[in-house]
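Notes continue from the previous slide.

Worked example: a multi-chain complex. Inputs as given:
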Amino acid sequence: MSLDQVQVAIVGAGISGLQAARLLQKKYRVRVLEARERVGGRLCNHQFTNGDTVDVGGQWVGPGQDRMYRLIEELGASTWPLYDSGDNLLCLNSKLRRYRGTIPRINPLALADLGIAMARFEAMAKSIDPTAPWEYKKARQWDATTLDTWLHKNCRTRLGRELFEVGIGAVFAGEAKDLSLLHALFYARSGHSLETLLAVTGGAQQDRVHGGTAGLCERMAAELGQAVQLNAAVEAVEQLPDGRLRVRHQSGSVVCERVIVALPPNQALRIRFEPELPAWRDQLLQRMPAGACIKCIARYDKPFWREEGLSGQVASPAGPVRVTFDNSEAGRESGLLMGFLEGDVARYYSNVDPEQRRAAVLDCFAQYFGERARQPLEYVDKDWSSEPWTRGCYAAHLAPGTWTSYGPRMRETNGPVHWAGTEFATEWFGYMEGALEAAERAADEVAGALARTSGRLELVTA
Amino acid sequence: MSLDQVQVAIVGAGISGLQAARLLQKKYRVRVLEARERVGGRLCNHQFTNGDTVDVGGQWVGPGQDRMYRLIEELGASTWPLYDSGDNLLCLNSKLRRYRGTIPRINPLALADLGIAMARFEAMAKSIDPTAPWEYKKARQWDATTLDTWLHKNCRTRLGRELFEVGIGAVFAGEAKDLSLLHALFYARSGHSLETLLAVTGGAQQDRVHGGTAGLCERMAAELGQAVQLNAAVEAVEQLPDGRLRVRHQSGSVVCERVIVALPPNQALRIRFEPELPAWRDQLLQRMPAGACIKCIARYDKPFWREEGLSGQVASPAGPVRVTFDNSEAGRESGLLMGFLEGDVARYYSNVDPEQRRAAVLDCFAQYFGERARQPLEYVDKDWSSEPWTRGCYAAHLAPGTWTSYGPRMRETNGPVHWAGTEFATEWFGYMEGALEAAERAADEVAGALARTSGRLELVTA
């Protein structure tokens, strides 16, 4: 194989890696190395037989995600608002109740309990600086506590807790027992507030992208042209005697001056570095497991629930599908219902035969929207924990104790190795917006470093 | 390279992998693939210039570890009891207090507080079945709580908590905030009781092994001869169309029918499997980070503290060295003091210049044993988090939430892939004894599978 030389190698062609490449490409020779035979990472399209394109990965953008809206515009793409009219449904003990807005009509005691707990959570989240969550005076105490412990202390009715937990599942793709309270608070703060993360209109579920979010990545990759190399899973990053790095991948190797790792942390951990990364970096990555989520979408001839004045949005503590959305595409006839299996439910259904899983999901849809929902024209689901090169969704979380022991160095550069990907963002951690923030920071770091060292390194590479 | 065929490939020549190989070698063609140029894994010798051999990794065996004593005898090795006479020291606010046995003379309130908390912890641990910690009726509740939360609720004096935390550091090489309460209880139960894990005579720190525990591994490797291959870091395990597995390593590949993975979980996660391991196995491994520990040993001309009636054992909440032991070898003149840096302290000192780290450790030794301790003849320390192919010590723990979501399948076989290593044991998880238990189980599984399938596979491999 030929000696392939660039200035910057970027590992992973998700939206973060691609954005870093776009920012650097103007001035530097860049290569994006992607394990899969597609770009997009956790953003992924599925096409139904009628031509409807649906996101089976990350799909939403919302207010405050300025980088995303700017990118969408730059790429000549556009958004439409998720269908958010009509009544929402709350399913309790197999009974449906309609409600509008974010507050369902339930037992006033549970409602007050839930409201007070959420207000408390929001107030605590506000006290955190998302660029340095470890600095708050109670950081160590909060990091030493699980969200579950906090919830049991602060939400005393069972129903209040169950509804809070529906929100936790929807936001974290995990269970309250898995999460450091500090991480949960940081995460909410990082995306403005828990309410923002839960809301559709005005919140993190407001808008969808025409052609799918993976379509954005395809456009970015098209701009980058030959700089994107598919089927090139990176196995090792080795420093050469002259200080440059050799990035070994499935089908060859690239020599470069700087590397940006733009992978989910659990994947970054699997790359061998020579010399090794410092202990703190390796142990941090060991403590950033990915959430568990299966995204399920059924296609019907039309969005029939709208005729009954329903929004398509359900909250259902009993599940297994605990939240649903009307995922129909703008300007298309089909009605698409989308539901999430999350946390322990996702873990369970990950091991269940696909036909049974489909049946369980459609059972839920039928329970919420009537028998008609049991017979879609088509159905697709995506279990991101089973997906090689990702192994969990939506994002990684920091296990209890991790933010305060390892967090302060999270975004530090390891010599010529820089860190991008949504888990290395301060704002909108876990969202596409965060992936862009991290990409910008990493690209800035690399540009700064190359400006400082290019003289010397040019000599070496000459 | 030639096509290298065996029946069983074992990944990792720690004591678990080597034992599995010994058990299988009598009947099967076996290959042990080891990344390093030495065997032993987390067991490792250091030789001082005077010839003293010291364990810089795992070193102790104690009552109840029957497999270990049997192995030591089989290999023609022997043990001696750790020096455990004289007074222990407790260092509080820079003041030393002598005490005998396990109970220091401190403020009676703190003493009672500590005693009650420990008794409560022990009673809870006893209620757990170490083969199925997820089954206890309070398992989910305990797994949703950190040990830190429990400790703050059950130990109300600051001194009581600080002393409990010295024990937690010594046993887990981690902080109470990192640990699921259920995991901590399971771990104690798995090694009989917390008291057993803390005790010297009659407990887990009772005996040392002549020639070091790594010496045992060398003897095992000598028995295995050509079956042990060094410098063979395994990168991938790929299933061939005929059902056999190709194990790709640094310097070639081996074709086999069964694989035993006998690695720390964080290392196992870095091997690529094709086809991929199921989601639950991958996500479980993502949730088993290794502890943090630096083991520090100073050599003096003689164990001078003994003359003053001291055992060499210190408990010191302020640290940085929180516990020490008289690590002198039987029948040698030198006095060896050993101290641990653990959890956050280990994380901190991992990033500190070696000379400064040495000075900080010797400062502690001098504080505990007088100025003479500041000037050893030699000093060595080992930061296991910095060590490639290990990346943390003593063992992995399961992050909060993990035992109840993933634990039930922990020791399950993944088709032809079997799991050994101390983290896959039910008794003495985290100890050498556990490594042997897991090795036996994995070897039994493999032997059973080969007995069932050898007809068919012999045909295939013919």
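Summary box: Chain A is about 35% helix and 20% strand. Chain A has three domains: 4-42+212-289+399-461, 44-102+199-211+293-383, 107-191.
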